[in-house]
Amino acid sequence: MDLYMMNCELLATCSALGYLEGDTYHKEPDCHETVKDLIRYLRREDETRDIRQQLGASQIIQTDLIPIIKQYHDDKPLFETIIRLLVNLTQPAIVCFGKVPKDKMFRHYFLDVVSYLQGYKVAFADEEVWTVLSRKLYELLQLDWESRQEEDSLLIERILLLVRNILHVPADPEEEKRTDDDASVHDQVLWAIHQSGFDDLLKFIASSDSEQQWCMHVLEIVSLMCREQTSEQLARAGQGRSAGEKAQDELELQAVRQRELADRQAKIRALGTRHSRFGGTFVVQGMKSISDKDLIYHQPLKEISQVSFDREKNPKRKPKNRQPMKDGDTTRRSTLSIRLFLKQFCEDFLENCYNGLMRTVKDNLVRMKTQDHDETYYLWAMRFFMEFNRVHNFRVDMVSETVSVRTFHFIETNLTNFYEMMLTDKDDITSWSRRMHLALKAYNELLMTVNAMDTSKDPAVRDSANVIKSNIFYVMEYREIFLTLLRKFDETKQPKTYLKDLVETTHVFIKMLERFCKTKGHIVVQKKRKKTKRRKRTAEQAGPPEPSEEDLNTVWDGLSGDLSTFIQGEGNLPQDVAPFDATLDTPLEEQRVQAMISIQDSLRSGDPGRALATLRAAREVWPDGAFGSADISQEDEFMALREICFTALPRPAPEQSEENPEPGDEGGK
């Protein structure tokens, strides 16, 4: 009964917005308050997203909200409220439900929401709507920071979020039935964006230093605009095919036709000339059945090789968690006009926006000013635009921001992190696998760009490529990452396209390394040193014995007075203490143990000032309470040092045999 009453209330609320008569929409006097009521309804929807589904079924966006935007866009309060409602209604289904539901009923609700979103996307393929949004966004961007209010900034963000939501809606190939070189719904939306001039506003925001706060929104929108395209197709759009390419296509077409004819003739021969109902029964001589007699075969045969015992066997089914992962990326070739538009957009974006935008996004990622997983858009943009630049018209200055050793380190770090999360986060393996694949593509394109720099005619560009290669070829992590990824490949967690890209990237790296070794006169080769077996420690080799309690009391009585003086601030503490050294390969936990031992050695050797200075320095490095809290009192600090002095700390065993380096560990080649 409650659900029925809710439907009645929603129906009455939607009716109170107004009505459409021909091409003219007549709004009711309380239309603004009605839109606010719909926003309140959405706040009270349950986990099935019932309000959202009912509004989608009533097609409120197609019949009411979009006509109001087109006709009453000068009513600022109403326009801002409707944009706010549209952002809520068009948010992705994965955001509404948190993740793709596994329950059958919730999965059904999830698919219903997706179908409603696809209907909204069709309605937004309207040039007039995008013209209104472009005009409003242009007016807001014209305001300087002194005259721009908080409401204006909120409206800018909501317009960008609305565009993101519309472009994020997945395509429905079965419903659209679009082939390559045909305009899909996504293409129609892109063309409306282009005709309204909204893409120029995106390029302005990306290139403006005063609009850097919207950088992540712009990068996400650009990635969604080009998600169905490949950079190679866009870079070569509008170029005529060469005679060699045409001849190759003809040869491939002839090969396919010959294959089809051969398969058809083989099927005809297999049927034979006899009618199918005279198949008969055959005795296979020389093949024994379960008895000692010849095998009797009750199927029509043309040749003896057709005898098979697997006709009625059911294939063994694999569990879902052991089936090979399928690749979820889908690409298609849009119409020529869309490809030419996106090609021009990418050219302008590379020339005016790429370096500045990527610098800002990288800074936000490092400072953790972004949301979770926003680094995927950075990796996508790096791979897409660097490949476009390399295929279309290679210029290093266009992508100079992302061609550096720091970029190699950033991708390698994220690649390792994605792999570790894929192993630990069992509930979200697919997402981590896709992020890992995206990082691998970015790494591959970075290597391809450095390889293209190596063949440049400009000596400065070749020198820069040599500097980068000298760094990545001598760092062990960059060399061994491909071997590790190949050994850890798992078809249940990673698709075959990932393995293909991994093999290609490894091939490019090895070829670059081979050419680098040939051009250099010598290269340092490091070999692992063999360790000799350690001998068992005898009693004499076990180190100095632990002092007795009487000896420790004597030592403490001698230094407690000076220690109290230092704690009260009446003495000068040494300044050259360093409990932590970031340049060492020693783990942080081992350095903490070493700091504790150093404090104890200073106390027992009669140097309380150095012990107190080391304790306070270690407290700043490890503020977890192991060396006392930050607001520790003088009495507690005194007792903490006494406890360290009297405690028998475990000390690392001394090395009894050194590593014997073999001749030729490091040398020239």
UniProtKB/TrEMBL annotation:
Enumerate the UniProt keywords alphabetically.
Cell cycle, Nucleus
- List the molecular function annotations (GO) for this entry: DNA binding
Chief place where the protein resides? nucleus
Q: Where is the composition biased (Acidic residues)?
A: 656-669
Q: Does the keyword Cell cycle apply?
A: yes
Taxonomy, superkingdom: Eukaryota
Which compartments does it reside in?
Nucleus
UniProt-listed InterPro entries = Timeless, Timeless_N
Q: Which residue range or ranges hold the Timeless N-terminal domain? A: 24-284
Q: Does the keyword RNA-binding apply?
A: no
Report the Pfam families cross-referenced here: TIMELESS
GO CC terms: replication fork protection complex
A biological process (GO) annotation for this entry?
replication fork arrest
Q: Where is this region: Disordered?
A: 307-331, 527-553, 649-669
User: Which residue stretches does the UniProt record annotate as biased composition, category Basic residues?
Assistant: 314-323, 527-537
**PANTHER family the UniProt entry points to:** PROTEIN TIMELESS HOMOLOG, TIMEOUT/TIMELESS-2
> By what name is this protein known?
TIMELESS protein
Question: What is the gene name?
Answer: TIMELESS
